[in-house]
Specification:
The chain is an alpha/beta fold and 330 residues long. The protein is 32% helix and 28% strand. It has 10 helices and 15 strands. The strands form 2 sheets. The chain has a 9-stranded mixed sheet. A 6-stranded parallel sheet has the order 3-2-1-4-5-6, with helices on both faces. Strand 1, helix 1 and strand 2 form a beta-alpha-beta unit. Helix 4 runs antiparallel to helix 10 and helix 8 crosses helix 10. The radius of gyration is 20 Å and the shape is globular. The protein starts with a strand and ends in a 7-residue tail after the last strand. The mean pLDDT is 95.
Length: 330
């Protein structure tokens, strides 16, 4: 049996608890670490809610620590957990700075435990289908990718509205799409980001090795009644693949649709509702059980995504292209 501690009892910590409960693992959650002790989470009724992280580190029955706290705390908490011999599921982004991200990677390299950065978009079935068909060569040579991510302003945590704690919209929110486009296009070289209206959408153009181009549209200022949505479209020499997701609203069902169009194939699939957080946990816990390093979400790839998101932020602020200095995953 795997003992689990969730650090953070906000919206993300609650979501992690629900995902584990959906897998029948609620009883494995031994602790929820919060700023102050309190009543248990509904999805983790037997877990102790405590304010002492060191108690978790000392408990040999805890094998997994899920870190669901503000991004600026990630380095300290992840390093402590790894040094205590724990396996770590670390919410994205990996960190606020490249220096902190690299310190986590260095500690992970030395540690006995496994660390995985929770880029949950990788576990959406539609995004997985896009990557599967690209890897199978169905689109031929991949030429460009365009990703969008649109939501209302985050109202579930004050720290998300503070760029000093969250890294800002591109680091906390747009990083999902930086990660996806990196996976599909390869080595990023330069980022140009434009925000025509203060507080408005940001359009990031990423140049990749080999002449490929990625575009990422990020906006977290939709009206509250407009449902969250995201999409990705890949253009290749043999065809086009597209995935679109629109969250359910009070009067409309969830939309999750994948399509592929090539000279030989025309596919359109409406995908069933899913819980990618549960899928992510299934994968991570299997890695822990077999002591296998995750290949779905590697630490170097999480650092690459952060590097592109940080470059986009600097480009937006300076109104100039920003070079991506290095590429850690190759």
């Amino acid at each position: 049996m795997t003992g689990i501690a969730i650090v953070g009892r906000g919206a993300m910590g609650t979501r992690h608890a629900r995902a584990l409960a959906s897998l029948g693992r609620a009883a494995d959650i031994r602790y929820v670490v919060a700023r102050s002790p309190g009543p248990p989470l509904e999805a983790a009724p037997t877990a102790l809610v405590i304010d002492d992280f060191n108690r978790v580190l000392r408990d040999d029955a805890v094998d997994v620590v899920a870190i669901c706290t503000p991004t600026g705390t990630h380095r300290q908490l992840a390093v402590q957990a790894l040094r205590a011999g724990k396996n770590v599921l670390l919410e994205k982004p990996i960190a606020l700075t490249m220096a902190d991200a690299r310190e986590i990677a260095q500690e992970a390299h030395r540690a006995e435990g496994i660390v995985m950065v929770a880029h949950v978009v990788r576990f959406f079935e539609g995004y997985r289908l896009v990557r599967r068909d690209v890897a199978a060569g169905l689109l031929g040579e991949v030429l460009s990718a365009r990703a969008t991510r649109l939501s209302s302003a985050p109202d579930w945590a004050d720290w998300l509205r503070n760029d000093a704690e969250s890294g800002g919209m591109l680091v906390d929110f747009g990083i999902h799409d930086c990660d996806q486009v990196n996976l599909l296009l390869g080595r990023p070289l330069e980022v140009s980001a434009v925000q025509a209206v203060p507080g408005g959408p940001v359009e990031s153009t990423i140049r990749y090795e080999g002449g490929r181009v990625g575009q990422v549209l990020s906006f977290s200022g939709l009206a509250p009644q407009v449902p969250f949505r995201s999409s990705i479209e890949i253009v290749g020499s043999h065809g086009v693949a597209r995935y679109e997701f629109v969250a359910a609203s009070h009067d409309r069902a969830e939309v999750s649709r994948y399509s592929l169009s090539t000279g030989d194939t025309a596919v359109s699939l409406d995908l069933a509702p899913e819980d990618p957080y549960a899928t992510q946990y299934e994968y991570f816990l299997q890695c822990v059980a077999t002591h296998a390093q995750p290949v779905e979400c590697t630490t170097p790839e999480a650092i690459d995504a952060l590097q592109v998101a940080l470059a986009a932020t600097r480009s937006r602020d300076s109104r100039r292209p920003v070079r991506v200095e290095s590429h850690t995953s190759n």
